[in-house]
Every structure is written in C-alpha cells, then in structure tokens.
Design brief:
Elements: E1 8-10, E2 16-23, E3 32-34, E4 37-44, E5 47-51, E6 54-57, E7 62-66, E8 72-76, E9 82-89, H1 91-97, H2 106-109, E10 118-120, H3 123-140, H4 147-168, H5 179-190, H6 198-205, H7 209-220, H8 224-241, H9 246-252, H10 258-269, H11 273-279
Parallel strand pairs: 1-3
Antiparallel strand pairs: 2-9, 4-7, 4-9, 5-6, 5-8, 7-10
InterPro entries: AraC-bd, Homeodomain-like_sf, HTH-like, HTH_AraC, HTH_AraC-typ_CS, RmlC-like_jellyroll
GO molecular function: DNA-binding transcription factor activity; sequence-specific DNA binding
Pfam families: AraC_binding (PF02311), HTH_18 (PF12833)
C-alpha cells in the first residue's frame, strides 16, 4: 500500500505570486519545494525556519532566499501573530527581468545549496523593502492603466535590493538544527543509491529507532520514508535533466523497482519521468 504523499512540489502558475500574511494558528508545514524561486521576509512571530539540513530562529527583518531545489519549512512555535511576506518567482520571469549586466537570480545561486540563505536587513533596508512591497500591493490591487508594468518595476527593484544586500552581507545566523537530524539527513544524502533502513540508522547512531523516527518527524514534518523518497526523486530529476535514460535515473537514484519509480515520480511531481525528461531536455548545441 502506498504511503500518503506528505511532501509537496508546489507549482506557481503565474509569473510571480505575492502574499503578505498574518496568522495566529500554528504553522506546522512539512518540508516542501516550490517550482519557483522565493523571497521571504520575516516581520514578526516566534518561528523556526528550516532549509535543507539547517534550522534558524527567525528575527524580524530576516530576509531569506530559496531556490527551487531547496527543501524548506516554517514552524510557528506558539500562537503569537506570525507575519511574513513571500514572493514566488518563475525562473522564466526572472530571466526576462534580468539583463546581461544584472542577473537577478544571482542571490539564489551564488552559495552552496542550503547555506547562506539568510541576511538580516538594517532598519533602512527594511523600510526600503516595505515601501516597495507596499507599492507592489497597490499595483496588484488596481486594474488601472500601467499597473502591470508598475508591478514588474517593483519586483525588479526588490530583486536588485535583495541581490545587493546578499552581496554585501557578512551575517551568519545561528544554526539550531539538532545534530541527530542533520546527521541523519547527511547519511541519507550520501547513500541514496543504497538500501536505507531505520534499523541501519539506529545501529549507526546507537539510538533507539523509534526515537530517531520521532525526532526526524518533529523537525521536518516528514517520515523518514517520505524524506528518502523526496531526495531520490530530486536526484532522479537531476539525472534526467543531465540526459540519462529513465531506466538509468531509476536505479542510480536508489529505486529497485522500475514500476514503483514511475508511479512514485508521477505521484509526487505531477508529471511522468518521460514527460519530465522531454520538458527539461537540453537543446542541441
């Protein structure tokens, strides 16, 4: 029987998606990805933010950049009002806004995956960011002539600001991810093509398997099985993008059953491996 799909690949169907939200209920989202870039500005609340194998206690004014490949999760620790601004941006949209001299996606890619995602804005930078998002909100709420261009201008200015801040940043946030969870993730990443069991992890860390499983679920929102499935599918996507056949991607990403690979890939990503390979094939030189 198939395990329910706990992980998500969220699809952004517009050029960009802007949200300014305040909630008072517990935001216990599990690890997920977006098929788009994300700018995230934390304004207030009591929140832990997880990115790949790191976890950070957020402070008002923290700006986070997340690439489509990076798993992430926000977790509100209590019912304090949690306010944030998120902007999801399609790859093709960023490409259109960029110029040869100004690559607006640079801040998402200059660093190792899962590292260097956070900067803390100065008061002046925060005020500039909020002024631009306020103008963006006004443009998006109006159907007056030219507001679409005004919205694009605001997005472009926000991305220039974000890139400038990250280029100049020396901020190093404290990583509070428990060592057990980080080590479990690192072990899984290094052994994706092999059989990975909870019993193996228990022997490796000399800990009770139930304890490992509960700690992992507490901090990721995912079962170990779901997390391993996600990492294998992410690896398979990368291999298919490099031009490997579906069969090669299947077995090199750790799936022992071809039919299960096809079914799992399609169920999680919403597209079959064959269609994904065609869609992401590199054009001939």
């Amino acid at each position: 029987m198939n395990e329910p799909v706990e992980l998500r690949y969220d699809f952004i169907h517009k050029d960009f998606l802007y949200l300014h939200r305040t909630t008072t209920y517990n935001m216990g989202t599990f690890y997920h990805r977006h098929e788009a870039y994300e700018l995230y500005l934390f304004l207030r609340g009591n929140v832990n933010f997880y990115i790949e194998n790191s976890c950070y206690r957020l402070q008002p004014g923290d700006l986070i950049v997340i690439s489509p490949e990076e798993m992430h999760r926000s977790f509100s620790l209590d019912d304090t009002e949690y306010e944030r601004i998120t902007i999801n941006l399609q790859k093709s949209y960023l490409h259109r806004l960029s110029t040869p001299a100004t690559l607006l996606s640079a801040c998402f890619h200059y660093r190792p995956m899962g590292k260097g995602n956070i900067v803390h804005l100065t008061q002046a930078q925060l005020e500039q960011f909020l002024q631009l998002t306020g103008e963006l909100e006004q443009a998006l709420s109006s159907d007056a002539y030219g507001t679409d261009i005004q919205a694009n201008c605001c997005i472009a200015q926000l991305l220039v600001l974000a890139n400038t801040v990250f280029q100049q940043a020396s901020f190093i946030p404290a990583d509070i991810m428990p060592a057990l969870v980080r080590q479990t993730m690192d072990y899984i990443e290094g052994h994706l093509a092999e059989d990975i069991t909870l019993e193996q992890l228990a022997g490796l860390f000399h800990l009770n398997s139930t304890y490992i499983s509960r700690q992992f679920k507490k901090h990721t929102g995912l079962t170990l099985r779901s997390y391993i499935l996600d990492r294998r599918i992410a690896l398979a996507k990368s291999l298919l993008g490099e031009g490997l056949s579906i069969t090669e991607a299947c077995y090199q990403s750790g799936f022992s059953d071809y039919a299960n690979f096809i079914r799992s890939f399609t169920r999680v990503t919403g597209i079959s491996p064959g269609r994904y390979a065609k869609k992401n094939a590199s054009p001939p030189e």
